[in-house]
Write a structure and sequence with these properties.
This protein is α+β, with helices and mostly antiparallel strands. It has three domains: 77 residues, Alpha-Beta Plaits, CATH 3.30.70; 347 residues, Rossmann fold, CATH 3.40.50.200; 81 residues, Sandwich (Immunoglobulin-like), CATH 2.60.40. It is built from twelve helices and 27 strands. The strands form eight sheets. Strands 8-9-7-10-12-14-15 form a seven-stranded parallel β-sheet, with helices on both faces. Strands 22, 23, 25, 26 and 27 form a five-stranded antiparallel β-sheet that branches. A hairpin with a 4-residue loop joins strand 4 and strand 5. Helix 5 packs parallel to helix 9, helix 10 packs across helix 11 and helix 11 crosses helix 12. The longest helix has 20 residues. The two termini are 18 Å apart.
């Protein structure tokens, strides 16, 4: 939704400053202000106590420096737009410097005992590795370490696997606290009896075998971070939903039942506004069938679209065999679902592991999967290899991206779970580190996961939506973009008396298209933009004229 903030004043014309648009750590209602003398502080609060009849409740909170005349001041951010009020303070004759107050955090490398060997998160070149051939996890953790959304939703990643050690102290498993364990009743009326610890798609219970594979995968998604023991996951605090396809036999029916549990939990969460179910944002599937084609597995493949419809992206491991999935097939990574992300295996030197699948149209990206240290049963840890180990980095990345302090992202995601899930996938794939081993027909993107860039892409989404839409004039603006969502063409209606250019950017801020606007009329103008060749996802339309930029309108392409 486009937001327009107006302050009608003969003295001021406020416009958005892009520097503020990139800040997600602003303390609401706080300013740090340096004035010329102590007496100026009280005078300043008097002069700006009201703007255009709006009571700002501007006051001195405390002195930060007597000698430098620096103050912490507060105002009512619910009454007046923060950026515009800061501009008013900065322009006041009594003020030398004014800025927002910000939160910060210590720049830490997690203190988990085994972190020094976790090259996938932070590659220092140990054991013959290449420096920075990693997912840039430390840089991402400077922004967020995961766990909750801006709305306070507990983020959940569903790991579908053979079994789990639920007693592993370094893991943070999801529990259904609305269910009374082992009483034989469906206490929360979600369609599953006694689903306290998760679900076993084979037995229809929440009982699991303690298995090393699922325990290892879970640790990469979300081992507890910075807790002095063991390892850290991509997320430090995310909940891992344990779902088993059974340990006695690997049957496709159990896979479908397992996915259905994750889907139903998220659907229930959507329907009840979070009072029931679980906020599942991604699934991890580190299993499959070599040399198989989707035509023989229509239900399995269809499950990814069904999961996507409620907002869940599914990360899937490709074959642990060096063949072309495009031509020789694989389940699930040959499934044609827009909500599935297919992953292959990279090494500590950014090479493709010689024993993993590839495909220019089927395999989306690579992620570290060789000699990955993670959790193991009986509170132990182990280093193992495979596309199984690569994939949870991606499932975890989706969860971390949604943990940004960005209310608009979560609001949009809840309003359009399927559409925003596609945008998140597009952002993640657009943020890869392009490397030779993943290029030239090996993957769709030609790159390896970069967690930091993926998180930054979400920051760009948040700041573009929140700040770039502040404009103090209606003489140069986009009035409508339709249809929205769109598939082949969008129509842009805008108000301008000058020749304009229309720009379309992605969530990474990269300009995808630029066309000349209507040159025949002045005032209300109409232009058309062909989007038939764009990938599905979220884009932003703006217009430029004489070094001025209009408001920004978000467009979803299906």
């Amino acid at each position: 939704m486009r937001k327009i903030y107006l302050i009608i004043s003969a003295l001021f014309l406020f416009t958005a400053n892009n520097a503020y648009s990139q800040e997600t750590n602003i303390v609401p209602g706080n300013l740090l202000v340096m004035v010329s003398s102590d007496s100026d502080a009280n005078q300043l609060t008097k002069e700006l106590s009201s703007i255009n009849g709006i009571n700002t409740n501007f006051k001195v909170e405390r002195i930060l420096s007597n000698s430098m005349h620096i103050y912490l001041m507060t105002f009512d951010e619910t009454a007046i737009n923060s950026t515009l009020f800061l501009k008013a303070v900065q322009k006041n004759h009594l003020v030398k410097i004014a800025q927002f107050n910000h939160t910060f955090q210590e720049r830490i490398i997690p203190n988990d005992a085994q972190f020094s060997v976790m090259w996938d998160m932070h590659n220092t070149g140990i054991s013959g590795g290449v420096v920075d051939a990693d997912i840039d996890a430390i840089e991402a953790w400077d922004i967020t370490t995961g766990g909750l959304t801006a709305d306070g939703d507990t983020i959940v990643v569903a790991v579908v696997d053979g079994g789990f050690d639920l007693a592993q102290l370094d893991l943070n498993f999801w529990k259904n606290y609305q269910e009374i364990p082992n009483n034989g009743f469906d206490d929360d009326a979600n369609g599953f009896i006694d689903d306290y610890d998760g679900w076993n798609g084979a037995t229809g219970t929440d009982n699991f075998a303690s298995a090393s594979h699922g325990t290892h995968v879970s640790g990469t998604v979300g081992a507890r971070g910075n807790n002095t023991i063991g390892v850290t996951g991509v997320n430090w605090n995310v909940k891992v939903m344990a779902i088993s396809y059974g340990s006695g036999g690997s049957f496709e029916a159990n896979v479908v039942a397992s996915y259905a549990f994750a889907m139903d939990q998220r659907r229930l969460y959507n329907q009840t506004n979070g009072t029931k179910g679980a906020f599942v944002v991604s699934t991890n599937s580190s299993f499959g069938i070599d040399l198989a084609f989707p035509s023989s597995y229509p239900l399995w493949c269809a499950m990814y679209d069904s999961l996507g419809s409620v907002g869940i992206l599914s990360a899937a491991a490709t074959a642990n065999a060096n063949y072309n999935v495009d031509t020789q097939g694989d389940i699930p990574t040959a499934c044609l679902s827009d909500w599935m992300i297919a992953v292959t295996n990279t090494t500590r030197t950014d090479a493709k592991n010689s024993s993993c699948g590839f495909g220019a149209t089927t395999i989306d990206l690579g992620a570290p999967g060789t000699q990955i240290m993670s959790t193991y049963p009986s509170n132990s840890y182990s280093s193992i290899s495979g596309t199984s180990m690569a994939t949870p980095h991606v499932a975890g990345a989706v969860a971390l991206m949604l943990s940004l302090p960005c209310p608009q992202l979560i609001s949009d995601y809840k309003a359009d779970p399927a559409g925003i899930a596609l945008m998140i996938k597009d952002s993640l794939l657009g943020a890869v580190d392009v490397i030779p081993s993943m290029s030239g027909g090996i993957t769709v993107t030609g790159g390896r996961l970069n967690l930091h860039k993926s998180v930054v892409a979400m920051q760009n989404y948040c700041t573009t939506v929140d700040i770039d839409n502040m404009i103090a004039s209606t003489e140069f603006e986009i009035q409508n973009v339709y249809p929205n969502p769109a598939t082949n063409q969008i129509n842009i209606v805008y108000n301008s008396y000058n020749v304009v250019e229309i720009s379309l950017t992605n969530v990474l801020g990269q300009e995808i298209k630029r066309i000349k606007g209507d040159t025949k009329t002045k005032g209300i103008q109409h232009s058309h933009l062909d989007i038939s060749n764009l990938n599905k996802g979220v884009y932003f339309v703006s217009i430029y004229s004489a070094n001025k930029k209009s408001n920004v309108v978000k467009v979803i392409v299906y």
